[in-house]
Task: inverse folding
């Protein structure tokens, strides 16, 4: 499949921010995945001490978008003994603002999902077709829209500098960044809702979109990227400090180009991605959900993956340990960490055995 940016120099664009060198050298680590795990844990400690010295952003706000069903076998990979085949997750957007050293103000949207178009993702489209409409309305709750939340926060779309996703599963960005040709399903020409925003994406994932592996195909909408504006993308390689207390850390595994937002706030360091769907999946020994603690104890595994696509499972485990090492403990309940799932497990009457032991629901910083 030919994509618009393949005729441009988008993949050669200079990166932004300051490169994080703490995670360089992983491919040169001698030994197997166990050696790489030890190295990753150590380097996360190195970066943690460096990152706290960068300062804090001006503000972080959390915006609920949609709660929807998700297979238990994916979200609580191998560990859950719940009888419910589905659990519920809530997708949220983080709005991060900071001031550069030269006084310029920046606005970053993390996970600004266009959930209306996201429903066309092959996996979810098939699930919707199999679910009666009355049941759909019971299991899915729309909380707000990206543009509606920004208006509430007093942010104009043209003031948004960056869009960031931990990965591009389910994402259709056409209404956010515009297209170079009319789109029949969207009524013709598509002007960007965020005319000045750049999408920060790992080069690995962007390049993979033109030729997906069969295991990836249910979760992407590659055809929606054929005509997107190529100058809307900032293809980056690895981890970057974007601003005071704001970083993107490469965390491959869930997809090859996975990335994690890391924030230094008034309560300490947070990380956010979809590598797990609940904070307790990073400290499963404290989970009260059926099977989770026992599974972790039996198999001596310290994390429970979110594994709808198992692209490189061991890498995802190692990436989770990086996230786990970077963050601080929750001030609400120190058994759990300040890891904020971009899609967080949410209790639902329809899904017995999947009610989380602990939820964050939001990151607040100002």
Result:
């Amino acid at each position: 499949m030919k994509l618009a940016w393949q005729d441009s120099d988008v993949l050669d664009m200079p990166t932004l921010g300051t490169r994080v060198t703490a995670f360089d050298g992983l491919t040169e680590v001698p030994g197997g995945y166990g050696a790489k795990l030890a190295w990753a844990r150590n380097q996360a400690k190195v970066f943690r001490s460096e990152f706290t010295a960068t300062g804090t952003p001006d503000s972080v706000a959390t915006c609920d978008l949609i709660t929807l069903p998700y297979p238990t076998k994916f979200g609580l990979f191998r560990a859950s003994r719940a009888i419910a085949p589905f659990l519920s997750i809530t997708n949220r957007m983080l709005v991060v603002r900071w001031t550069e050293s030269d006084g310029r103000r920046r606005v970053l949207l993390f996970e600004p999902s266009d959930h209306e178009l996201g429903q066309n993702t092959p996996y979810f489209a098939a699930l919707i077709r199999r679910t009666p409409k009355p049941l759909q309305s019971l299991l899915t709750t729309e909380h707000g829209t990206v543009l509606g939340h920004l208006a509430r926060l007093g942010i104009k779309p043209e003031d948004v500098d960056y869009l960031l996703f931990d990965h591009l599963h389910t994402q259709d960005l056409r209404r956010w960044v515009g297209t170079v040709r009319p789109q029949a399903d969207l009524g013709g020409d598509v002007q960007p809702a965020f005319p000045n925003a750049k999408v920060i994406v790992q080069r690995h994932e962007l390049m993979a979109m033109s030729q997906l592996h069969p295991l990836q195909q249910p979760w992407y909408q590659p055809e929606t990227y054929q005509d997107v504006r190529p100058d809307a993308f900032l293809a980056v390689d690895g981890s970057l400090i974007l601003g005071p207390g704001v970083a993107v850390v490469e965390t491959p595994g869930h997809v090859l180009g996975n990335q994690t937002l890391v924030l230094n706030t008034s309560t300490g360091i947070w990380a956010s991605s979809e590598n797990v769907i609940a904070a307790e999946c990073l400290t499963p020994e404290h989970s009260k959900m059926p099977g989770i603690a026992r599974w972790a104890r039996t198999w001596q595994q310290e994390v429970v993956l979110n594994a709808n696509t198992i692209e490189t499972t061991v890498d995802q485990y190692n990436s989770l340990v990086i996230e786990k090492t970077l963050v601080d403990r929750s001030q609400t309940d120190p058994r759990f960490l300040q890891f904020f799932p971009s899609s967080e497990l949410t209790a639902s009457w329809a899904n017995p055995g999947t009610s989380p032991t602990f939820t964050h629901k939001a990151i607040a910083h100002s």
